[in-house]
Structure formats: structure tokens, C-alpha cells
Amino acid sequence: MSSPLEKWVEETERLTKPERVVWCDGSEQEHERLVAQSLADGTFLPLNPKTYPDCYLHRSDPSDVARTEQVTFICTSSQADAGPTNNWLSPAEARQRIGPLLQGAMKGRTMFVIPYLMGPAASPASKVGVEITDSPYVVTSMRVMTRMGQVAMERLGKSDDFVPGLHSLGDLNPKRRFIAHFPEEKLIWSVGSGYGGNALLGKKCFALRIASYMARNQGWMAEHMLILGLEDPSGQVTYMAAAFPSACGKTNLAMMVSALEKSGYRVWTVGDDIAWMRVGADGYLHAINPEAGFFGVAPGTNKNTNPNVIAALRKHSIFTNVGITPENEPWWEGIGDGPPAGTRNWRGEAATKDNGPVAHPNSRYTVPARQASSISPHWEDAEGVPISAFIFGGRRARLAPLVYESRDWQHGVFVGATMASETTAAATGAVGITRRDPMAMLPFCGYNMAEYFGHWLKMGRTIAHPPRVFHVNWFRRGADGKFLWPGYGENVRVLKWMLERVAGRGGAVETPIGFVPAPNALTLEGLRIEKQTVEELLRVDAADWTEEMAGTKKFFEKFGSQLPGELWSEHQQLEQRLSRSTAPRK
Ligand code: OXD
Ligand code: MN
Q1: 280 C-alpha to center of ligand 2: Å?
Q2: Distance, CA 225 to ligand 2 centroid (Å)?
Q3: Ligand 1: which residue has its CA nearest to atom 2?
Q4: Whole-angstrom Cα distance, residue 60 to residue 407?
Q5: In a structure prediction context, what are the per-residue pLDDT tens digits for the chain, which is 586 residues long?
């Protein structure tokens, strides 16, 4: 009798008609074999084996460099279940449109079967996925980003408890590209793209879109959040999870070398992109990182912005769409020096001004998490780490202060639900446009976001010790257009204030939008920053916020009567607080 997995593999083989089928075991020998093939067929270019051992450069098709949200679909029986923020196809129509693209799609190619585990081997919260793909780049990347092969097969046994994901490069034509999710069947179909977010199906497709749907039904949370631990001078570690939209610095924050390290504040990395969380026996929300690697944005990464990753990616790493120097080392804008003469850009052309940026703005590194010296000793704990603070944030040139704390859980859900950020190169489309991105989940929520907000509110009622909820904005600019806050390692000063708030210390002043640090409550020793700049960073402009309320209202109206009343009530209360604060004094 074949197992459910074997049956699905046979069915897929009949559909896609590959030349051969290879089951991946995740072993070293298999990795070496695949790399040798990828070097021979040009999927990979070798990097300098002395300075970057077992590291490779992959150049993608120039039309396939970022997530493509316009062709990403949630395929639920009823459109209302996908909600107004997702593209929707009925499961039948999705099969009708995508099925023909998969028909015979792997002719002449190898079909790889990749069993993988999302989450630590020891954790009961981890889940099995199986990806079938015809891309060797995907296989090598999945080996970094997930626990692949034997460990997943052992967890799965003969059961049908896995998320199947079928991926084919197809002909890479954007017109024939679909990233389709069938949450009711826990199935993923992706065709026409080799880009990480579209093709490494364990990441956005499973660990966020399908998992968020499962989490809502099963009473847990799957969030687009980094997880970090902040150690204080007594050695106690407080864990925090932060949701920022793509390419807003989650990896850099999670891997930060703290500017306050000499005073005993150190940051430990648990995850940089995704958190799966459940209420533990102790009444805290416990988080695991379902991933095993970091798929980070390369441009701007250097020894000041993220020294830990710069050290970590010197071995067993894959670079996608970066430049390459004559020494066969990767190069990107903001790496430090250069580019040295003779550097080639991400398309393989001479790196000249006329040929545009050397590295694509969404070029990436893929590096095993265990190689980071900041990796937490608890990152693979079976029960995860207890979360004391949630941090929401985004890029807002004007509006949001450096940091504020919500009034309570319900207000915190409102703060997350009204998040907005200026768009980045992580998805195709215009960059720098302000868009609503609730909880940084807009492109990743596998069901109706109105219900998702309801799920957050419900979770709050089941967590005895809910995380405190904060909002940060590292990107506020002054009148001269320059960033007001230095960011990166200095962000620990803001985390330290949060830690103090969690511990019941930490001075704060109430504003209409929440609590901001009291004067002198932020530790600023050793940082050259003017008092007026700090004041400007923390300023809450009631007129700007009143204007913002119109945008929030418009966004909420999209959800009609399904939007939880609690969020309208928060909206109204904020409006009232703002109008009281702008009312002329008698
Ligand atoms: C990512 C993204 O790659 O959010 O993590 O786009
Ligand atoms: Mn992400």
C-alpha cells in the first residue's frame, strides 16, 4: 500500500512528466552532487573557495526577482473567506487555469521531492511540508532554510499530516505565473517563478499563508515576525517578537550587535522572519522559529549595519542577484568599499553606471541560522521562547514617533491593524508608496483579514500574560529629509526601554496614541544626538494623526460589517483623544 505521500508524488509525476524523480534526504553527499550539477549547468557560479567556501552565486531571470503579489491567490470555496485584501480564485477555477501550466511542465527535467520540517526537530509545534520542484536552486536553498530530508520523513511516517507544495519553474514567463494556495486542502501550487518568496514553499506559502489559516482554526498564531532575546546585565533574557513589512530591517534587528553591549545588554537571535506561537502552560505566548536559515536583503548590509550576518555568510551560503568581483566575491551597494574594477553586475554585465545598480535592490543572501554568532542557545527549544513584547513597525518618514506603547491588548491589536509602511523592492511594484500593511501580514494572511483581527482579539483573551504591544519607527526624517535616528545597533536603546516597561519600570508619558518614553527614560549615553532631535523623534503631532485617521477609516471600511466592532471602538476612542488634545484650552 502506498503512503499518502507516495500517492501524491505518483500523481504529480503523472501530471508533470519529469525525466526522473529524486527523493532528497538532505545529506552532505546529496548536497555535493547537486552543487556539482548546478555549477555544470550554470544554475550556480562558484564564489571564491578560500574566502567563501561552499558559497554560490545564482542569477535569476531578470523578470523574476521579487514576490509577485498580483499573481498570488488564496483559493477558498467562498470569496468572502479570502477577504478583500487577497486575490481570490475558486479552487475549481484555479485548477482549471493552473493545471494546464503544470501538465508536462517537468518534461526533460528532474523532479525533486523535498520532505522538510518547519520548526525545531524536538518541538511538537513543528510541522512537515513536502515540496516537489524542478529547480535545483530551490533544493539547495530549502536545505538552508528548512530541516530537510530524513528528519521530516521520520516525523511524517505513514501519516497524511503534511503540507504538499508543487513548484515548477514552468517557462518563467510572468504572464504564466501563479502562486496559489488552497488552505482548505493545505495545498500549494506555484508555477512560473524561481524567486525565493514564490518558490521556497516552506516560507511565505506554508509558514505564513497556509499556517495562518491553520492557526486560526486551531487557536495559535503564525506571524511575519522576528524573534529576539534581550539579555540584561543580570543575565536575564526577555524575548520580543517584531512585525515589520518586508525589507524594513527585521534581519538586522534580530541579529543586532548592541550598542549597549558594554553595559551588559546583548541581543540573541531566535528568528528573523516568521514566528509560530502558542499559549504555554505558564500562560505566556511561546514562539518557535519555523525556519532554519535567513533569506535576507543584501544591499545595505555591511559590518556596521549587521556585523553578525557579514561574518555568518562566509560559508555554506547562496547569493542571489548580487554582483561578483574579479576575486569571485559577492558585492552589493552598501557593502563598504568598491566595487573593484572588473566587477560584474547581477545580470553578468560590466558594473558601470549605465548598467544600473550592481546588485538588484532585492538581491538576497541565504545563510544557515546556526552560523550566526548571535544565535540564541534556546532557538531550537522544543517549547519555544516566552514572548513578553510585540513590536510593530514600518517606514514612516513623518508620522509615527520612534516608539510608543499601546494602552492594552485591544488597543495593541488596533495599532497592528492600522500599521502602514512605505513600499520596498521585496515585491514588484512602485517603491516608496505608503500602504496599509496590518501586522506586516497584508501579503501573507491566508484568509479574510477581518477574521484575522478577530483571531488576534480572541487570542488576547486566552493569554494569561499577554505580550505588551509597542510600535517603532526607525525611519522618521527631519525637515532636511535626513533620518533622525541612527538605527541598527543603537536600536537596542529602544528595546531596553521596552524591557523596562515589561518589568514595570521605564518612565512614560501618555499621548493620544499611547505611551512614549518620558524625558530621560531612553538611555542615550554614548550617543551623539541633540535634545531637540530626541524631542522631534518622540513628538506626536495631533494634526498629522487626525489626517491619518481618515486613511485608517477608509481601510477599515473595506471589510464592511465583518470588521470586529472592537477596532471601530478603538478608532473612535483615538479620534476623541486626538480632538481633546487639539481643542483650544479655555
Ligand atoms: C521576505 C519577504 O523575503 O518578506 O522575507 O519578502
Ligand atoms: Mn519576510
Answers
A1: 25
A2: 8
A3: 246
A4: 46
A5: 789 999 999 999 999 999 999 999 999 999 999 999 999 999 999 999 999 999 999 999 999 999 999 999 999 999 999 999 999 999 999 999 999 999 999 999 999 999 999 999 999 999 999 999 999 999 999 999 999 999 999 999 999 999 999 999 999 999 999 999 999 999 999 999 999 999 999 999 999 999 999 999 999 999 999 999 999 999 999 999 999 998 899 999 999 999 999 999 999 999 999 999 999 999 999 999 999 999 999 999 999 999 999 999 999 999 999 999 999 999 999 999 889 999 999 999 999 989 999 999 999 999 999 999 999 999 999 999 999 999 999 999 889 999 999 999 999 999 999 999 988 777 777 777 888 999 999 999 999 999 999 999 999 999 999 999 999 999 999 999 899 999 999 999 999 999 999 999 999 999 999 999 999 999 999 999 999 999 999 999 999 999 999 999 999 999 999 999 999 999 999 999 999 987 655 4
Mutate to test the pocket of ligand 1, among 273, 321, 364, 435 (most ligand atoms within 8 A of CB): 273
Instruction: Give the span between the Cα atoms of 488 and 578, in whole angstroms.
Output: 32
**Ligand 1 centre distance from Cα of residue 480 (Å):** 31
- Please report the beta strands in 234-363, taking only residues with DSSP state E, as ranges in sequence order: 237-243, 266-271, 275-279, 285-288, 293-297, 318-320, 323-324, 330-331
Residue 248 is a catalytic residue: yes
In ligand 1, the atom with minimum distance to the C-alpha of 273 is: 5
CATH topology of domain 294-371: Phosphoenolpyruvate Carboxykinase; domain 2 (2.170.8)
Q: Which three cell numbers stand for residue 348?
A: 553578468
Residue whose cell numbers read 500599521 = 419
CATH class, 223-292+376-577 region: alpha beta
Q: Can you tell me which atom of ligand 1 is nearest the CA of 426?
A: 6
Ramachandran sector of residue 283 (left: φ over 0; alpha: ψ -120 to 50; beta: rest): left
- C-alpha 290 to ligand 2 mean position (Å): 13
Ligand lying nearest the CA atom of residue 274: 2
Residues with CB under 6 A from ligand 1: 67, 197, 246, 273, 295, 426
Q: Which residues contact 390 (CB under 8 A, 6 or more apart)?
A: 225, 240, 241, 242, 243, 412, 416, 467, 468, 469, 470
CATH architecture, domain 4-43+68-219: 3-Layer(aba) Sandwich (3.40)
- Entry pTM: 0.97
Per domain, the residue ranges of the chain are 4-43+68-219, 223-292+376-577, 294-371
Output the nine-digit C-alpha cell for 585. Answer: 484650552
